[in-house]
Amino acid sequence: MKSHFRILIIGAGSAGISVASRLLRHSSAFKHDIALIDPAEHHFYQPLWTLVGGGAAKKEFSKREMESVIPFGTHHIQQSVIAFDPDNNQVRTEEGQIISYDFLVVAPGIEINWDGIKGLKETLGKNGVCSNYSYEHVDYTWETIRNFKGGKAVFTHPDSPVKCGGAPQKIMYLAEEAFSLHGVRNQTEVTFNSANPGIFDVEEYKRALEGVIDRKQIKTNFRTNLTEVRGKEKEAVFENLDTGETFTTSFDMIHVTPPMRAPSFLADSSLAGDGGWIDVHKHTLQHAKYANVFGLGDASNLPTSKTGAAIRKQAPVVANNILSLLKGSPMEAFYDGYTSCPIVTGYRSLILAEFDYFKMPKESMPFNQAKERQSMYHLKKDFLPIIYWNGMLKGVM
């Protein structure tokens, strides 16, 4: 196995594969000189899991063999990185291999901290405790919703960054509509307990989503963080983040969005900044200290929502700026913080939120995207997966 690569990429998720594909499409000179390090055997299109949890899609369509999505001409090193040595342009894997590089791209994604909520791991997938953030357990979300007979349905958003800031509420809207279709809505109390101060950060979409909540008669408790789940007792413990006080509520079902964090091997390294995220310039995506290191995706400290749509705009910036440095030219590619969150509000409705670093809408459609639309629901359900597998991962979109 080679021990040196011109481009070494940590993480074969959306970000890592997209960057590799773009570099290879630019020049055949990179063929067999790019490596992706990732221990995973499968690659997942995780945005589909909201629809899987709502009974509108099959989870098998979100999963592919990793080797089938690795760009041709790229080495896949199926190991875990345990240490960075950027001063010597090296990383070390769990098997003790030292791999060196000319340029390093860090994109290992975000780590789900199932242990961050007391009792969650022990009861997940039973006792009415479900989560869309696990391929193994996402089917149980729909099983719970489909068999719900009324009572208290609780949905949570943790006090941490998460993959797609709108995802914790999307499954709530689908569940609420499913309860109506199944004739149990009048016997059901739907509650959203969120650590955030409001339903959304961008004012235009916030107003629209507040209207959705009012129409669906959903109770909201903001600045409220889940700390413990007692599955057998059907109880959940929450903390008021403003007062520090705790309270316990009963539930008949609870959808938990677990807390998330930077991967430990990154957080403990010299590449990390505040919070353990890789410390990069928010426009060039170049590391703050090491000029030959770039970072993007969910593991970065970029002050925008962690979404696949953000990665779609970040990947060309990283690839183009690396190409510029290789030519000895100034970096000109610029990331403006664009991100997007297709917020499903029902089985045939969606608000397509698109915005930048300034929390200003940056919309791509010729109409008001804060309005719920059936066409945008079909965009998410039917077209975005095609764009992902056949466009984004191949470096053409």
Output the radius of gyration.
21 Å
- Give unreliable regions as ranges: none
Largest sheet: 7 strands, mixed
Give the domain tally: 2
CATH fold-level name of the largest domain: FAD/NAD(P)-binding domain
Calculate the mean pLDDT score and round it: 97
Oligomer: single chain
* Number of β-strand runs: 21
CATH architecture annotation of the largest domain: 3-Layer(bba) Sandwich
Distance between the termini: 32 Å
What's the total helix number? 10
Strand content: 25-35%
Explained architecture:
By secondary structure, the chain is of the alpha/beta class. It has two domains: 4-110 and 262-336, FAD/NAD(P)-binding domain (3-Layer(bba) Sandwich); 114-260, 3-Layer(bba) Sandwich (FAD/NAD(P)-binding domain), CATH 3.50.50. It has helices at 14-26, 49-53, 66-69, 120-123, 138-146, 167-181, 203-216, 264-267, 308-326, 374-392, and strands at 4-10, 34-37, 42-44, 63-65, 74-77, 81-85, 90-93, 98-106, 111-112, 129-130, 151-157, 188-194, 219-222, 224-230, 235-240, 246-250, 253-255, 260-261, 293-295, 339-346, 349-355. Helix 1 (14-26) links the parallel strand 1 (4-10) and strand 2. Helix 1 packs parallel to helix 9 (308-326). The protein is globular, with a radius of gyration of 21 Å. The model has no long low-confidence stretch (mean pLDDT 97).
